Amino acid sequence: MAPRSDGSLAAGLAPSASPGRRRWSSVVRWVPSLAIGAVLAYLVVVPIALMLLSSVRPGGFPLDPGLTLGHYASVYGDPGFPALLWATVEFGVGSSVVALAIGLGLAWLIERTDLPARGVVRVLILLPMATPPLLMAIAWAMLLSPRVGFINQILTDAFGLRTAPFNIYSMLGLIFVQGLAFVPTAYLILAPSFRNFDPSFEEAAMTSGAGTWRLIRRILLPVLWPSILSAAVFLLMVSLVVFDVPGTLGTPAHITVLSTRIYYLVSDSPGGIPLYGRVGALAALFLVLLLALASAYHRLTLQAQRYRTVTGKAFRPRAMRLGRARPAAILAVIAYFLLSVAAPVAALVWMSLMPYQTRISWPALRLATFDNYRDLFVNGRVVASVAHSAAIAVSTATAVTVLALLVSWLAVRLKVPGGRVLDALAFAPVAIPGVMIGVALVYVYLTLNGIVPIYGTIWIIVVAYVTQYLPFGSRTMSGVMLQLHPELEEAALTSGAGRVRILWRITLPLMWPAAAAVWIWVAAHALRELSSALMLQGRENSVVPTLLWDYWAGGEPTRAAAVGVGLTLTLVLILGLWQAASRRGTKFV
Amino acid sequence: MTVMLRVDSLTKIYGNGSTEAGGVRGASFGAGAGEFLTLLGPSGCGKTTSLRCIAGLEEPSGGEIEINGRVVYSGARHIRVPTAARDLAMVFQSYAIWPHMTVYENVAFPLEARRLGNAEIRRRVESVLAMVGLSGMADRPAPFLSGGQQQRVALARAVIKDAPVLLLDEPLSNLDAKLREEMRAELRDLQRRIGTTAVYVTHDQEEALALSDRIVIMHAGSVVETGTPRQLYFAPRTSFAARFIGQADLWPCRIAGRGEDVITVEAPWGVVHSRCFPDDLGAALSLMIRPEHVEIAPATAPDGGASLTGTVARVTFSGRLAEYEIEVGGALIRAQGTTARLWEPGSKVRLRLPPDRCVIVNGGGEA
After folding, report:
1. With an 8 Å Cβ cutoff, is A254 touching chain B?
2. What ipTM, to 2 d.p.?
3. Backbone φ, ψ for residue B49 (5° rounding)
């Protein structure tokens, strides 16, 4: 999947004759690929296969007898299905467009113009990652719910309105919140190509007599087009399957999308028994949709690399003068931070200090109490969830880092036979949404319960998260591994060092900062992931996001807010660490 | 001179077996103890691939490689000694200085890999650092080195192994012109002092001429010609070598008469005598004349047997030297002279072409 350098280290290490000549050594060469391949297949292929199998079983379980297409008929023949599909597309496309538009604007302002305090803005832009989409949705419900939303109340009081001006429980509301939540992702994909755009392209255009507008239209946009397109496809891929926002805001609005439909088929089916057969049939559509998008994404990123604008020479990007538009640009950036960070966090903090849901006002301030926070430390359920979350985050991050390191080392560096397949397997889960991984694991561990009894424990959640974050881990590691000059390891070979010494003394120390960055990123995301944990929730394995979900859905917004504030603070801390580690990660390459 | 390196019919085919750039097709060469051998050729000629095959970083498709009397690779006999067990050290084009280590740790690594004691390692690292002029820099972290210093660390790390064969892959190409000439001299000095056999890869013919005892010229994966710098400059045997080393005019020619040690050839613009020609004269021949070997005299000067008359068509003046294009019999012959005497366009001149400098080479005018 990734561009390859030549396989010199493999040649320098393997003491074998050409393949096929010495049968035993060629068998030995396959051992690492087969071992890692088996782990990856177990994580990625088995769940999907079992899920698809169960979609054609009358009883909905993989080991049931019989074959049927009944589940497909009932899912796709349902008169509500076109509406479901339409809502999913509307939500997905809508939120992607919002995120892309804001992300493009911010990337351009920060990387290519003379916006003041760009350095600070560049770091702050990642702040919204500390408020997971679930929290964003909850906070915006507090701000814009038609009856009790803070902003709605303030506006109706101020202008004497009859009805609330905004309603977050609507398709527009869903798109707005999800769009905002995606902005950092859009920015992170787009910013590097804006930043690395070789100024000599621009200078050549200007000396050819092109003005600003022509420059943007004829040079900047065409060169950046592949990056923009790949960001769009990536966002679409995620937004079509995302659960948190539609799960939180969609139900009161009677808006159901694919992901929430699957959740309700499992948790709220009319007969009380999860309709796993139908879930499998519905998930099959997901799979087709996402595989198509993933292959498009892959092709686009390859193209983006061909357009890669880094020349290796140090240069300072040309900053475009904003001139009279400068105040407007500053206001726009401030507005973005207000909407994505300040307003939601303020709503959460207010709510968390109240004994019950209270509108924002001076007199209400007298009610303020830390009871909700005190509860965090004494309530057994909260304490258990925090402990579970911490254990899951640490195990997941460690497992992903080790696996990703091994895969990238085997596939990129040693070029073991089958390395491409390993790489592809590790990347494949990018096309499998959390809800689906959650559901698929239900099949696996209900089936395997006699052999691997982890159903209902925190370990099933670890398995789900490892699968979910493996693509990020292996992508990052392979990227750094590719950037490490192969001669660094070859020099160790010609110095007379063996395989283990090279890995230990050269490769690992050089990969260490990147590994730390991956570890922290995965830990942070494991702390905030809701959808798969929700699908796998049992009595013994509640985590912080599911606790938050339960409090919110159970009508305890003040407790939910306190948990949310705690989670946000933790995530801010971890993301700060991640930033520091990533910066070190690029030190050597 | 004992043979230190022997490369025999080395073949390396990439991917689908097409004659893709960088492959090697049956290259054979060798180097004696203490010899400085250079693999020279345009990019994609297979010189770096050959070096990497010798190092064991690339697995050949066939042939045989012997280092210090030990066969390290043989396609026919299924011998394949891993890199770490080969008697060699290598300097890389990118230097490959490990950024997470200090200068000392970088240079000590080969000894550490050999599990020597700390005191012994320290003694040897210090002496090698002194040898490359880096005394007192031992504790500096690698990222804080200039290009020239990195080059010296890379050299020290290779030299400390005391391997009988030292491989160098375009080690000077990343330095600026002035530093390159400095390092060139130091490199040659160092190699002589420690008496190692050096195999040096470059595409820079000037570098090759200045450094080497012997040069192997490669083209499209094969060895075209091997010789000392003087042999290749004064008496190349192929048109490719003639073009690749120095400046040369090549003219298609036909043998008109043959004496004991002199051949009379007919070039498009006239007849000259050559006393320099290969033993194995082929069907297609070219006459090579280097502009700096053409002597220009006034048209009134005596003929002397080996001369032609012509008219100066163009002069390019560069201070120390002047380049001329001189029209002779409808063709333009390039010549070069010091500016002690300058000829103006239109001047009638007599050209002297010494038979020792009229070289007949195998191959047509096209390389």
Report:
1. no
2. 0.80
3. -60, -45
> How far is it, in rounded angstroms, from Cα B323 to Cα B291?
8
Chain B residues close to A496, C-beta within 8 Å:
84-85, 110, 113-114, 161
Q: Which of B24, B86, B91, B98 best tests the A interface by mutation, with the highest count of A CBs <10 A? A: B98
Strand B3-12 to strand B79-80: parallel, antiparallel, or no bridges (unpaired)? unpaired
Q: What are the extents of the domains in chain A?
A: 32-47+377-589
Q: How many CA atoms lie within 13 A of A217 on its CB side?
A: 5
Q: Is the pTM of this model over 0.80?
A: no
**A507 CA: distance to closest CA in chain B (Å):** 10
Report the distance separating Cα B155 and Cα A72, nearest Å: 69
Q: Which residues of B touch A485 (CB under 8 A)?
A: 94, 96
Res A314: pLDDT:
42
Q: How far is B76 from chain A (nearest CA, A)?
A: 10
- Tell if the CB–CB gap between A15 and B81 is shorter than 8 Å: yes
Measured in Å, how far apart are chain A's first and last C-alpha atoms? 21
Query: Is A494's CB within 8 Å of B78's CB?
Result: no
CA-nearest residue to A502 within chain B is: B113
User: Considering CB atoms only, which of A21, A485, A493 is closest to B84?
Assistant: A493
For the segment B200-249, what is each residue's pLDDT rounded down to a tens digit? 999 999 999 999 999 999 999 999 999 999 999 999 999 999 999 989 99
> pLDDT-derived band of residue B280, with 50, 70 and 90 as boundaries?
confident
**CA–CA distance from B119 to each of B133, B134, B135, B138 (Å)?**
21, 19, 17, 15
Residue among B47, B39, B41 at smallest CA distance from B12 = B47
The whole-angstrom separation of Cα B150 and Cα A24 is 42
CA A527 to centroid of chain Cα atoms = 12
Predicted local confidence at residue A2, as pLDDT: 33
CATH number of A32-47+377-589: 1.10.3720.10
CA distance, residue B171 to nearest chain A CA (Å)? 13
B90 contacts A491? CB cut-off 8 A: yes
Contact A12 B56 (CB under 8 A): yes
The pLDDT-based confidence of A316 (bands split at 50, 70, 90) is low
More confident residue, A313 or A1: A313
CA dihedral defined by A439, A443, A449, A450, rounded to 10 degrees?
A: -170
Contacts of A342 (CB under 8 A, 6+ apart): none
CB of A245 closer than 8 Å to CB of A263: no
CATH numbers and ranges of domains, chain B: 3-234 (3.40.50.300), 239-362 (2.40.50.140)
Query: Minimal Cα distance from B115: which residue of A?
Result: A497
